[in-house]
Structures are given as C-alpha cells and as structure tokens.
Amino acid sequence: MLDDGKALVLFSGGQDSTTCLAWALDKFGSVETIGFVYGQRHAVEMTCRAPVREAMWGVNADWRARLGADHVIDLSVLGAVAESALTQDIEIAMNAEGLPTTFVPGRNLVFLTFAAMLAYRRGARHIVGGMCETDFSGYPDCRDDSVKAMQLALNIGMARQFVLHTPLMWIDKAATWALAKNLGGDKLVEMIVSETHTCYHGERSTRHAWGYGCGTCPACELRAQGFHKFSAGG
Fold first, then answer.
1. CA 114 – CA 200 distance, rounded (Å)
2. Burial level of 74, CB count in 10 A (0-12/13-18/19+)?
3. Torsion over CA of 182, 186, 188 and 194, rounded to 10 degrees?
4. Non-local CB neighbours of 101 within 8 Å, separated by 6+ positions
5. What is this structure's pTM?
6. Count of C-beta atoms within a 10 Å radius of residue 103
7. Domains detected in the chain
8. Which is it for the CA torsion 121, 124, 125, 130, positive or negative?
9. Any bridge partners for residue 70, and if so which?
10. How far apart are CA 80 and CA 206, in angstroms?
C-alpha cells in the first residue's frame, strides 16, 4: 500500500522547501519531489529546482542515493482563477481584510491535494511541506489547523494513512537557517544562499549575503532578517 520509508516533498526551489527537502532526506530512505506551475510571477523559482536538487548531492553523499524522481504539475488554472499579487500585476500590500495581496486563496490546499494524489500512485506515506505559522505572511492555509484538517480529509477521502509533515511550522526564519546548518552544515547554508529563490519579483540580478532578490519585497525582507539574526547567533 504505502511505503513508510518513502516521502514526497512539496518543492518550489525556495529556502523553506529546500530545507524541508534536506529534512526529508535525513529521515527517509526514499524521497521524491513535486513542484507546481501556477502562473506565478516569480516563475524563476522553477528554474532553480533542478540545480538545487543536484547540489544536494554535494552536501551529503547519502542523500544522492535517497533522492528520487521529480514531478512538475501544471496548475495554470489556479493562477487564472485566483486574484493575487503572485499571479497578476497587483501591488504587494495588505488588503481590506488584513491579508497580504500575495495570498493565493486555496493554493496550499490544492498543492496538498495533488501531492496526495501523486503520493497515492507512488506509494509514499509521508508528505512534507514548508508551511509555517510562526514566521509567515498571514496566509490562512499555512496554519497548523489547516494542514491537520487536510490530512484528515485526504486520509478519509483516499482511504489511506498519509502523514503530513511541516518541519518549519513552529520555528522562525532564523531557526530555519539554523535547521539547515544542523542538517547539512555550512555547505547546505551556502547552497541555499546561492541557489534557492524567494523574491516575489523574481529578481536574481543582485546577490546579498542572504541570497538573490530585490531586497524590499516581504519575502526578501523576511529571509534577510532571519539570515542576519542567524548569523549573529540569535
């Protein structure tokens, strides 16, 4: 039925999902990745995925044997339906409900559903995502309650016993950098800095101490603040 030693990681090519991939490679004997094309403005993140996966081999020799197939799902309909600053030319700001305009309604719910569909076919019991409630942008579908509700719904609806893991749920961005170092040392930290992408604007022409990005969007600011706190030992 489902292999308890096999995991599927929601992998965007960003800092959080790369850290989650390292976490999964450290814990499971077989790990596959899934990514989604949904009309995101920062689609450059998709071009980072293959280099990051390959760079994992140089971080830990054991991870090379454990890292399996990559799967990319076309969810362009999500970008067509959702009105968001991540999928349309809309200003990044807070809306009248107090949510950031970068919120794509239902995105993580859809991602987890498709991940479970693939995990069902691939026989993977464990599904790993980078959702975080401690240091997030206010997205309702990043909350622990949302993920737990999805696990229940998926297990009932698919008659399986999937386990949804969110290693970053209760840690801030500085602790995420620290987790990466604990998992893969300075090699993994440097690889995350140089290869991953977080910037909402898809900017990769300027490299900062914490990586590439515009330096001013909420994603860049959060990543930079966390890196500086981590570097300072905080």
1. 23
2. exposed
3. 140
4. 84, 85, 90, 91, 92, 93, 94, 95
5. 0.91
6. 21
7. 3-172 (3.40.50.620)
8. negative
9. 33
10. 30
Tell me the per-residue pLDDT of 109-136, one tens digit each, with 9 for 90 and over: 999 999 999 999 999 999 999 999 876 5
pLDDT at position 42 over 60:
no
| Six-digit token string for 156 | 């009932």
| Rg, the chain, Cα only | 17
Number of Cβ within 10 Å of residue 95's Cβ equals 11
- Residue 97 burial (10 A CB sphere; 0-12, 13-18, 19+): exposed
φ and ψ at residue 213, rounded to 5 degrees:
160, 170
Q: Where are the beta strands (DSSP E) in the chain?
A: 3-10, 30-37, 67-74, 124-128, 163-165, 207-208, 211-212
Classify 56 as helix, strand or coil.
helix
Residue indicated by tokens 């987890």: 112
Token digits of residue 180: 């990466």
Taking the chain, what is the end-to-end CA distance rounded to the nearest angstrom? 44
Residue with tokens 């309604």: 105
Three-state SS annotation for 125-177: EEEECCCCCCCCCCCHHHCHHHHHHHHHHHHHHHCCCCEEECCCCCCCHHHHH
Q: Are the CB atoms for 55 and 189 separated by under 8 Å?
A: no
Q: Which of 47, 35, 7 is nearest to 196 (CA)?
A: 47
The mean per-residue pLDDT over the stretch 1-9 comes to: 94
CA distance 37 to 227: 28
